[in-house]
Amino acid sequence: MTFIAMNRFKVPKENGKAFEDVWASRESYLDEMQGFVSFHLLRGPEQEDHVLYSSHTVWATKDDFVAWTKSEAFRKAHANTGQSTSRTFMGHPQFEGFEAVQSQFSNKRSAA
Question: N or C: at which end does the chain have fewer Cβ atoms within 10 angstroms?
Answer without folding.
Answer: C
